[in-house]
């Protein structure tokens, strides 16, 4: 019913005890409890742009973060060393994958509300995502999902930005080599690069000036002969060219950016003009204008820091 009529989810949240029952099931300590794995799909169904704020107020953010925390503990690394090929173990692994994917889906919905980003930071969500990225067992499958959550969590949330830096997150935002950016099975290099860029843009704006964390951030742009600064400029030039191409197509059709309400309209114009494929624009190019704005903002901050003798 909730799939057919989304408003039903709001009624369920307000007028029944179902949400509290779901939360209680997800709070069970046993990481492999079948009840947790069964009810998480129900929480995914309940969450929507209309209910994310209300569910956040009811405690959904804390519940989801706490459900993810056990996967960051060292016991998982010990399991990596065990070589059991029992059929039940394989089924459990599949169920755990579904459970984790569902939790990340819940985070994606919850973090669309600004108040939930603060709750996420206060619940230890930023540190949790960083730990998941650093776990060898989880990295290849969930690196991208954790990065997407961090991207959303840091947007317009200064406390999350500070926690990110305090938890050594800058090593994630700025990989050792920008030429070798990690990927995972659900996100390709361009997608990962886009989220890294957004995280950096959020940090440059969200961290207060003249603070230790700001100095740590700016220092990253100085490492390895300003490699990261060069990387940003290359991204800026690349996105500038793509934006120019899109604007040419819009001009050809007598349109302006503000006239285009749906990015799919831009993609269809580009496909019809033979300049790009549908997949290229909708999956990798939907946020080029936004990316260009963010890059310009970062470059301005770096330029101002340079003029003060910081870089």
Automatic annotation (TrEMBL):
GO terms for cellular component: spliceosomal complex. Gene3D superfamilies: Leucine-rich Repeat Variant (1.25.10.10). Keywords: Coiled coil, Nucleus, Phosphoprotein, Repeat. Coiled coil: none annotated. The keyword Metal-binding does not apply. It is found in: Nucleus. Residues 4-256 form the Beta-catenin-like protein 1 N-terminal domain. Pfam families: CTNNBL. InterPro entries: ARM-like, ARM-type_fold, CTNNBL1, CTNNBL1_N. This is Beta-catenin-like protein 1 N-terminal domain-containing protein. It comes from Papaver nudicaule.
């Amino acid at each position: 019913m909730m799939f057919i009529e989304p408003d039903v989810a709001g009624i369920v949240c307000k007028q029944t005890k179902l949400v509290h029952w779901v939360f209680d099931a997800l709070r069970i300590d046993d990481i492999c409890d079948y009840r947790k794995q069964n009810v998480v799909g129900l929480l995914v169904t309940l969450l929507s742009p209309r209910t994310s704020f209300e569910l956040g107020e009811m405690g959904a953010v804390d519940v989801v973060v706490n459900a993810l925390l056990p996967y960051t503990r060292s016991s998982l690394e010990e399991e990596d060393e065990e070589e059991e090929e029992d059929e039940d173990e394989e089924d459990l692994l599949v169920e755990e994958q579904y459970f984790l994917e569902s939790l990340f889906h819940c985070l994606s919905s919850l973090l669309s509300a600004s108040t939930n980003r603060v709750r996420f930071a206060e619940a230890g969500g930023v540190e949790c995502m960083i730990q998941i990225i650093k776990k060898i067992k989880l990295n290849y499958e969930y690196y991208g999902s954790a990065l997407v959550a961090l991207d959303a969590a840091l947007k317009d949330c200064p406390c999350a930005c500070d926690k990110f830096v305090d938890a050594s997150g800058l090593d994630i935002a700025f990989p050792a080599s920008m030429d070798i950016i990690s990927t995972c099975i659900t996100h390709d290099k361009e997608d990962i690069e886009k989220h890294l860029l957004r995280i950096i843009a959020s940090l440059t704006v969200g961290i207060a000036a003249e603070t230790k964390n700001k100095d740590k951030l700016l220092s990253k742009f100085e490492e390895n002969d300003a490699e990261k600064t060069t990387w940003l400029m290359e991204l800026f030039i690349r996105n500038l060219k793509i934006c120019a191409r899109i604007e040419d197509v819009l001009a050809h059709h007598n349109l302006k950016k503000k006239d285009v309400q749906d990015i799919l309209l831009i993609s269809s114009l580009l496909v019809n003009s033979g300049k790009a494929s549908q997949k290229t624009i909708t999956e990798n190019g939907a946020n080029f204008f936004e990316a260009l704005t963010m890059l310009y903002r970062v470059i301005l901050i770096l330029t101002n820091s340079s003029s003060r003798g910081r870089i």
